[in-house]
Amino acid sequence: MKKKSKRYKEILKNAVKDKKIAVKDAIDLVKKNSKTKFDESIDVSLKINLKQSKGGDFSLRTVVNLPNGSGKKNNVAVLCEPDKTDEAKKAGADVVGSDDLIEKIAAGKFNFTKLICTPSMMSKIGKHGKVLGPKGLMPNPKLGTVASDLTKAVKDLKTGLVEIRNDKDGNLASTIGRKSFSTEKLLENYNHFIESVKKEKPDTIKGEFIKNTYLTSTMGISYKVGGK
């Protein structure tokens, strides 16, 4: 059996079992437990209701633009026409290319975490879905990664835009910031995230859409959240 570290044993002293706590209190505890040397991610996990009154189970996949950013550093690539490469570079893209970038993708030689594509280049990238899809890199208009306004698209991915999707059991998770963020900024991001998810509830689902909510950090323990 794996032995628990001294740090983890200390964190367990702050555990709250079998009851929900207010969001602000949960954030304070999560930040208190973030004792590692790196800037831990503060994450929210939800259990949502997938059962529709008509049709099959609901599937949620969208993006949320956090008001105070996510603190996550994305390595953004832009696939565009040659006459738009300067715009992409000025916007802050880490990798920019046209047919040359497609060749690198085809060869599996790329090291970016997000890929933005202009609409006219989608026909060229489509056949590489088998390479990009499993890595979550295939551009999608609903996720803000197929765009004509490259300046806005790059800025969004570089700052507060986070992608969320549920698994087959209705679980979904996302970062809402870093331990270096103030409690106020994390609380604002949390509230915006929850409201954004609630807005995705279809009319065919009855009752509460979000069943359970938890907050944790990269190396911490989770807290069940209830109320404000």
Mean pLDDT: 91
CATH architecture of the largest domain: 2-Layer Sandwich
> What ranges have pLDDT less than 50 throughout 5 or more consecutive residues?
none
- Listing every helix as H and every strand as E from the N terminus to the C terminus, the arrangement reads HHEEEHEHEHHHEEHEE
CATH class of the largest domain: Alpha Beta
Strand count: 9
Q: Could you give a short account of the major beta sheet?
A: 4 strands, antiparallel
Strand content: 15-25%
* CATH fold field value of the largest domain: Ribulose 1,5 Bisphosphate Carboxylase/Oxygenase
Helix content: 25-40%
Shape: globular
Category from helices, strands and their pairing: alpha/beta
Number of domains: 2
Q: Tally the helices: what do you get?
A: 8
What do we call the CATH homologous superfamily of the largest domain? Answer: Ribosomal protein L1/L10, rRNA-binding domain
- CA gyration radius, whole angstroms: 20 Å
Could you characterize what this model shows?
With 228 residues, this protein is an alpha/beta fold. 29% of the residues lie in helices and 21% in strands. It is globular. The chain has two domains: 119 residues, Ribosomal protein L1/L10, rRNA-binding domain (Ribulose 1,5 Bisphosphate Carboxylase/Oxygenase, 2-Layer Sandwich), CATH 3.30.190; 83 residues, Rossmann fold, CATH 3.40.50.790. The strands form three sheets. The chain has a four-stranded antiparallel sheet with strand order 7-1-8-9, with helices on one face. A three-stranded parallel sheet has the order 4-3-5. Strands 2-6 form a two-stranded antiparallel ribbon.
